[in-house]
Amino acid sequence: MQAFYLYLIRVAIIAISVSLFFVKTSFAQAPQSYPRVVGYFSIANPLATLSGGKITGNFSKVYTVNFPFGLNLLKSDKFGVSFEITPGVRTENNISKVSSVAFSPGGIFRLKNNFAVVQRVAFETSGRFGFTTILNKIVVKGKDASLFLAVPFATRFGNNIPVSLGTSIQMGLFF
What we know:
Elements: H1 2-22, E1 36-51, E2 54-57, E3 62-66, E4 69-74, E5 79-92, E6 95-110, E7 115-124, E8 129-141, E9 146-157, E10 164-174
Antiparallel strand pairs: 1-2, 1-4, 1-10, 3-5, 4-5, 5-6, 6-7, 7-8, 8-9, 9-10
């Protein structure tokens, strides 16, 4: 199991390096025209979940990683709508499998200095549903792609499981 974590860390370092290599910073950009469609792909590492009065870390007996991707329809420099699909891969007892896929439409509230707040509803194939609030920051803005970091805060209900509150760290590319 420890070899898997080392492999995952190496893959993440390579992905970050490649992302930074291909993202070209641009200081003088032309004004954007709207509406505009932007795609993205990212990797999200859950940090901790509170459910049933217990806090569970992601690096205990199981490891979960999510791969959110989607399309954003930017209506203006202040607002947009988004649709995201997030497959989740869970590793337990050296067996990895897709544990759930979340379908998450929502609104994007774009703020100053490349910050945004995204509010989504979520419907998971595992039978859970809820909402997710995401704090997002573009850290490297390029001409053709931008690197972003985000912190999602997820609340889930349903499937005869206690309400859960969880947070993750997410990194990805807008293109």
